[in-house]
Task: structure prediction
Amino acid sequence: MAAKRGTPSADMERVVTRSRPMKVLVMGMGRCGTSSLAEALKILGYRPYDFIDRMMLGHLDLWTQALRAKFLGIGKPWGRTELDTVTKDFDCVLDVPCPFFVEEFIDAYPDAKVVLNKRDVDKWLTSMNNTLFTVFQWPSWKILRYTDPGLCGAWYTHVMLTWEIFCGHDHGEICRQRFLQHYEHVRSVVPKDRLLEYDLGAGWEPLCKFLEVPQPKEDFPNMNKKEDFFAIHGQYWKYSVYLSVKNVAKVAVPVLATAIGAFYYARKA
Result:
């Protein structure tokens, strides 16, 4: 379960060969059926690059660098080479921060189709406040980011920067407006013949018709409900605590052993 760590300088300088051509760019926000879409795309034979993949492959540090470059002017902006580096083994992308790079994605992959998954903005904001924004406020993350820098530290730094850029960590009207602005921006930059506006709960028909693939007989997946979301993040929290205990023990045990040895040496002296 341990994540691999990205090596930015080496990764971004090598020539990248894709194992799969990029086919689908899902550019809607998270909590708009992204987990269900990811599962649906798997059923259709695609290999989606989702948030969990970015975390477990150690890509979060790379995406944090991409965010800093684009929105803060720190570092090299991403283009085709950088996108190929992280997505070369996948043929579709979804969930934040990928939608923040819609121009870069559509320029890099002109043959890929774009799915704009969407839902009512007020229902989206309610969902965000009841899930993601609640989890972000768990106070122990601020400690675990230091005791478990490899996994929790990379995740916490990444998600805090992502939502600082998106809405300044506002959970109300500013966030609501930024959601609406994002969708208008995607509509303005993606050619209409490449774009499907996909409503949450629309099922197989519009998606399969747009992608020109056969419609499965099974029901469209319904993933990542509120209770599932908290269960997943609860497991992640426990694993981060476990790694923290291991990391602290690596430091504490030698220090304690040294202290005990010095104490007994002093007594004998």
Remarks:
- The first strand starts at residue 24 and ends at 26.
- The CA atoms of residues 48 and 92 lie 5 Å apart.
- Strands lie at 24-26, 48-49, 92-93, 113-118, 195-199.
